[in-house]
Amino acid sequence: MKNLSDRTIAVIGLGYVGLPLAVEFGKRQRVIGFDVKKSRVEALRAGHDATREVDAEELSSAQELEITDDPSRLNEASVYIVTVPTPIDGHKRPDLTPLLKASETVGGSLSPGDVVIFESTVYPGATEEDCVPVLEQASGLRFNQDFFTGYSPERINPGDKQHRLPDIRKVTAGSTPAVGEAIDSLYSTIITAGTHLAPSIRVAEAAKVIENTQRDLNIALVNELAVIFNRMKIDTQAVLEAAGTKWNFLPFRPGLVGGHCIGVDPYYLTHKAEAIGYHPEIILAGRRLNDGMGAYVAGQMVKAMMKRRLQVNGARILVMGLTFKENCPDLRNSRVIDVIRELFDFGATVEVFDPLVSREEAEKEYGVTLVNKPNAATYDGIILAVAHNEFRELGLTGIREFGREAHVLYDLKHLFSADDADIRL
């Protein structure tokens, strides 16, 4: 396999994963960045990234990057990197639709000698069992004879300005040993933290899916501990701080577990496990516990309000933050919506404030109408659901001012001390 660093690369999908990748490669070699969303392409061409992962200056520094929504431009490439989402459906089953459609699009442009690299999170075996047949059918070419594949799982952490793409070690794999070496060499040109060449694509796929499964289970443990300690009237944060004085204690914190990775990836692994006849118990138990935390938070809020003789039915409650994590506008699989819907079921009027989210996206994704700015002395309850810097800057006094004289403040993210908040998870 010849050197891939002098070939034209096509990056399919310019979201949180694809755009930083296209920009880094576009600083060194010719890249065609492709996205099916015309509005996304137009915004990027104008130097605006709605995900806030790449600023205008960095975009302009990728002088070899061309951004397009024209699939015919993919014919100009010979290395294809697929970075489309891999969500779950309403029944928590893997939804490979975007991945298979992208594979079909790429297959229509494949020529002999081309390489297709997948970065989307999947279950072990998906690249060769699900994507390769689509590539073969669309191209009329034979796998590992006419074209080759690879896998390099994404490790992007949205909103994290410390751990950027070049600073995170990259796992790579190829469909043959020679292809693996070539793919690893290609990524090593942009990843300063180094690369790790896995022995097979299935190993690389499995490594990715267990990264977030492990995190999910650790958070599930501390979520269950929080439930237990709350019943015992013990401050969970104080317990974790005390336990954290031991060098090998893992610093996980309780909370809502959403997003496009941690709240999704375990279902890809359990789906594959069940397909081969094994019913995973621990992984699914962790998922059930984490999926139930929204209802638990809402229930805690309701109990606290009732103890203060605040009527819940008809109460006005402000939820601060709608994204799945702090300091990024990503709404995918945010579990804050579980809290909101549960409070609605209790008869409360819920208003949501998130300065990082577009009103259109909130409406489209969850049917939530965001308030531009909360009015002072308006709310019977306030839930600090996401720790955006904007909320930190408001401080305790600024946030309390939104509440009526008698109100409950639920500090879900532990921004304030146990004495300053009325409830903490």
Report on this structure.
The protein is of the alpha/beta class and 425 residues long. 39% of the residues lie in helices and 14% in strands. It contains 14 helices and 13 strands. It has an eight-stranded mixed sheet, sandwiched between helices. Helix 4 runs parallel beside helix 5, helix 7 crosses helix 10 and helix 11 crosses helix 12. The longest helix is centred in the middle third of the chain and has 31 residues. The termini are far apart. The relative contact order is 0.09. The mean pLDDT is 95.
Count the helices. How many? 14
Structural class, please? Answer: alpha/beta
Beta-strand residue fraction: 5-15%
Mass-distribution shape: elongated
Q: State the major sheet.
A: 8 strands, mixed
Q: How is the topology of this model organized?
A:
Elements: E1 9-12, H1 18-26, E2 31-34, H2 38-45, H3 56-61, E3 65-68, E4 79-82, H4 97-107, E5 115-118, H5 126-139, E6 148-151, E7 170-174, H6 177-188, E8 195-197, H7 201-231, H8 236-243, H9 265-275, H10 282-291, H11 293-307, E9 316-320, H12 336-345, E10 349-353, H13 359-366, E11 379-384, H14 389-400, E12 403-411, E13 423-424
Parallel strand pairs: 1-2, 1-4, 2-3, 4-5, 5-6, 7-8, 9-10, 9-11, 11-12, 12-13
Antiparallel strand pairs: 6-7
Helix pairs in contact: 4-5, 7-9, 7-10, 11-12
